[in-house]
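Quick entry, no commentary yet.
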Amino acid sequence: MDITINDLRDRLEIADALYRFGLGQDTRDAELFASAWAQDAELDFRPAAAEWGGNPPLMVGRDTIVTTILAGFAGRVDTTHQVTNVRAVIDGDTARATALVEAQHLLTADHGTHALLKNPYTVELVRDGSRWLIRRMRIENTWFTGDPVAIFGG
């Protein structure tokens, strides 16, 4: 029974890392957003952005990720993220997970300008005590609608 409870706890904590990622952005809570990431994390949004002509850099390091994302949206973009279909394979203190994330981006000054994306995520995580942190995240894109200016600006 203990193995099952521990496995369930790990799976909930892995999903929680993804929830902290999304909600931290949506609420502009830098501490919550940072709590999702390992210090040496990598965020690769390039595959998703390439679908509609974007060319963002590979983001490396928790501080770079938090600063780049939150500063890039501050006062300009409102977001909502819905994380679903989280699946994880746990191997000791590391894990691999996939998730499906719907991300809505709306210009703060004009919610009529928006971009809605459906993105499959591939995530590598590392255990940090009782919680899990994202070490690598790769975001691809299944479809989008709207105007990418709502994500990257003009």
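second:
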Amino acid sequence: MAIQVGQTAPEFSLFNTNKEQVALSSLRGQKVVLLFFPAAFTGVCTKELCSVRDGITDYNNVNARVFGISTDTVFSLGKFKEEQNLNFDLLSDYNKDVTALYGASYETFVLGMTGTAKRSAFVIDENGVIKYAEVLESAGDLPNFENIMSALK
């Protein structure tokens, strides 16, 4: 099922790289950006997340919390976050439940992998309503960051 602008964001709880649970419901009252990405340590994913790192002030200026989500383990995400000096949380959807819930998973990805996260972006307002949704079919494409910022303002 595709997530639609205007619907309430599906609830989830995932672990971050500090092994702390982050529940979407605990973020009510804040704007949230969810960036699903296929795999840590890959070229396009590194480019995407480092561009967010370098522009985090733009997100902070509109009081938005950014989360990267992949089906990697918390351990590999922790190493990736450390090596890239990422200044926002990465969440592990190792069981692939949230990725599927948001309609952001490949049935089959490279090398026969299944359930891998599609590169996707969702903006959620302070009331938990989806304001922007973009699910990309090509892992080589990047989300439209101008549209993300417009949805946040």
